[in-house]
Structure formats: structure tokens, C-alpha cells
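A reminder before we start the practical. When you read a complex entry, don't treat the lines as separate problems. The point of joint prediction is that each chain is placed relative to the others, so the output describes one connected object in space. Small molecules and nucleic acid strands, if listed, are placed in the same frame. In the example below there are two entries. Take a minute to note the order of the lines before looking further.
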Amino acid sequence: MKKAALMGFLFLAIAAGLAQTQITVPGNASGYFGNPAEKIVPLVPAIAVAGPGTITVTYISGTVNLGGDGILTGPNGIPYNMGGAQLPLQEAKGVTGGQVNNFGALMGAFIPQSRTSCKSFSAIDGTKHAVHIGIRPVDLFFVGESKTINVTEAGTLFLGINDEGVVDNSGEFVVEVSGP
Amino acid sequence: MKNTRIVLALLIFIAGAMLAASAQTQVFVSGQANGAFGGPIDMTVPYVPSVTVTGPATITVTYLDGMISDNNGEEIGPNGEDLNCGHTYQMPLQEARGIAGGVCHNLDALIGVFVPQARAGHQGFSPLDGTKGVTRVGIMPNKLFLIGEGKTFDVAEAGTLYLGINDCWVSDNGGGFNVDVTVQ
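Here is the predicted structure of the whole assembly.
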């Protein structure tokens, strides 16, 4: 009886201290990042935290079809010659085109609450005058199969796909997200 | 006589040392130098390189003269002016913050960006917005800052200071700013 009570207490403690959720990231959720960006599909809110803590994203299942010739990718993306196009994670670094290693990869951006709570915030590229308050490309980062980040303030982690031309994309990534 | 020569030589040495430690140049920044920042853009005019430093330094930019004609011929100085851009426009200094529309502060103001040598010296680099796919290697908008009539700042590494105008739609702009740039 004591053992069962202890287990129950532990379970409740873990549940109270650690939020965990499963998120589906559609294959066209580029957040309107990259160039030429042809369709506005916001990044997906994965978890909102109320303060400092550690967030972990872990890929569970799914593939994304990047369109064109039916190119399939997992969460790490694939090597690809982008020609003159610019992927979101390239936009994050201010570079364009050429060979990349993470076309179609799972990516993320942690946005402080002071921005996400603004009335006209939208989880899309803030540099394309398509939204009054958006996300700066410099905030994007590669997630791939898994990533653990430490955040210092309240905010929301958004997830998306490292692709700019998403009209013909399909599929999805299912991920598990845990945080404080 | 001997003492006079020594003092003279010392003065020449000090003057030479001061010149070596401080470089000064004048730059003209066209009223159309938008660097392809902001949106929508009607022209792509690269930012103007002003000074290049080889290591940590203090850079001072001082407005000398010149005006920009914009907004139906209105003359605007280096601090720019506030204008309600509605939902239509995003100025470069707004893009730097990931916002658009509403009241655009410092429209047509003198702005700058310091680009580290690692980027400015990269093959394919152009002093244009690196987030629009218009150049192989460009400038990140979050690095743009207001200069206005003058600004002094420290840089921690080698690189180049580029200057431009806080406007995106520039085909109707005229004039420009003459500025003095000093490195210590």
C-alpha cells in the first residue's frame, strides 16, 4: 500500500514538474520563411513555457514529401542543391542557394512571450511585411531528430519545415515535446 | 638650437603617430541606398562601404550636409521623420525587429551596419539584405542600427561599416547625405 502511494506521488510530481505533449508538424509549415516563399503557412506552436527551463524535442514518426520528384525526407533533411533558392535556415544566416545538407529538416524558433502576446503577432517571417509582428529569421535553428534547448524566459517554441516552396509538400513529422 | 630641433622632431613624431592611429574619410550616401531591405522594394541599391577596420576600433559617423527628397519632394535630414505606413510598408529598421506597418519611425534616416570581415570578405558577398534571396551572402537585418546625425560605437573585430537609408521604396528619392567617418 505504501509502495503504491509512493509511486502515485512520484507520478504526480513528475506530471506537475514536466509538461509533455505530442505535436504534428505538417510538411508545408515553412512559416513563410525562405525565398521564393510561395505560400503562407505559419509555424506550429509546440509548447509554451512560463519561465526559464529546458525544452526537449524528440522525433517520433513521419516523413515529409518535398514535392517535385517526390523527394522524401526525415527530420534531419536531405542533401540538395538549391540552385538560386533560399531555405529558411539559410535565410537565418543571410546566405542563399548552393548545396545544403538539411533540405526539409525539422526546425524551430523560441519566441519570447513579450512578442507572442502582441495582438498582431503571427508565427511567420517578420521580414516580408506580411504580418505586423512576426518572427525574425535569426531566431530559427535546426532541430532534426532531437534537440534540447535552455530558455531563460517565458515564451513559445514553434516548429516548422526547412523548405521555401511548400505548395506541393505533403506528409508530416510527429514529435514529442517536453518542458518545464 | 639643439633643443629646438629635438622639440620639432618630437612634435612631428607625435603628429605622425596621431595620424597613424586615426583615419578619417568622407562618404556620400545616396537617397536610394536601400540595400534591398524593407518591403516592398522597387530598386536594389547596395549599401555604401564607408570604412574598413583590421581589428577592434572605435568608429564615429558624423553627418555633414545634404538632404533626401522623398514623399512628394519633401526634404528630410539624417534623423528621418515619422510617417504612418499603414499596412503597406516595412522599413529597414522595422525589418531589423521583425515588425511591419503602422508608424514608421525615422523614415529616410541615415542607418548603418557593421559587417565582420568573415562575412564581408566572403566570396559572393554583396551589401544587400541576406534574407531575400537576392545575394549569395548578404547582411542580416537584425544588425541594422540608426545613425541619424551622428553615432560612435566600438567594434570588436575586423570588418566594414556600411551606410544606407531607412527606406524601401526609393525610386522617387533624390539627394543624399555627406558624412564624415573616423576610426580610432
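Discuss with your neighbour: Residues 49 and 157 of chain B are 16 Å apart (CA to CA). What might explain this?
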